[in-house]
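Batch manifest line 306
LIGAND: PMV
JOB: complex structure
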Amino acid sequence: MDTIKAKAYGKIILIGEHSVVYGKPAIALPFKATQIDVEIKESKVSLIDSKFFKGKLDEAPELLYGIREMIRRIFEKYKSDRKFVLTIKSTIPGERGMGSSAAVSVAIARALLEFLGVSYKNEDIAQWANISEKIVHGNPSGIDVSVVSNEMSLYFIRNKVKEHFPINLKAYLLVADTGIMGKTKEAVRDVRNLVIKDRAYLDNIDTLERLANRARQAIEAGDAVKLGQVMTHAHQNLQKLTVSSKELDDLVNLSLANGALGAKMTGGGRGGCMISLYDSQNKAEKAKEELLKNGAKDCWLLYLEN
Ligand code: PMV
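JOB STATUS: finished
ARTIFACT:
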């Protein structure tokens, strides 16, 4: 049998991380500069070949428990005991708020369903991938899997709205990696403890809701300046929720000092990536150089006009 190949791209949350857990809107986009590639080939024993683990599927470590369970459930549903070698290659840095775990699950689900000869829709892939994500992240809002499986920018409200929302703006988005692993699960848990302890933190969540809706209006109006202001304001609220970090704040400040219209952390935080917005490629390229000289481990530039 031929080798089956599948891939999935990373994602970036433009606005609404953390507040999305509380039923507030978020906007996210696929991040096609990074991707997961998987290959599946029939074999006598099921094996995984990845950067983190090479060996029998049954012996895969905790890091891969989500994937193991998703695979087990897929084979159970389709009553198959076929064996395979699964090869996983990634250019998405892990634990950086770029959707690496969602993309691995989505790419594997796509490849496995094809391997089993099952036709599928994006929603089916999202359902399978969410099995793995729940094990990895606890109680994810589902935004990562939605964006990664649909490969479209989305306006998202947990369990309610998944609206394709084209981000078409004459502006450049710089994504900068602190090189430090984010701590999504811990950050989500700490925000929950904060809002339980002191309801004043719910005001930050409500502010993030207003900002996500303003970001949407700014994008629809083609107003990059407004979107930039909204992004920086969102970052200040995320700082108050204690999910930023010194390295993220440094990259935000450096971006703002180098001509950014706005800047914020993206994803779960406490590490991971920062995004900043520019009205010209020249400014974005210059800022990129400065960020790389001053702490960013990697940078990607996205033009937001489709
Ligand atoms: O760190 P990431 O890319 O998995 O993003 C997490 C986004 C949160 O809103 C913090 C959590 C969630 O489940 O949506």
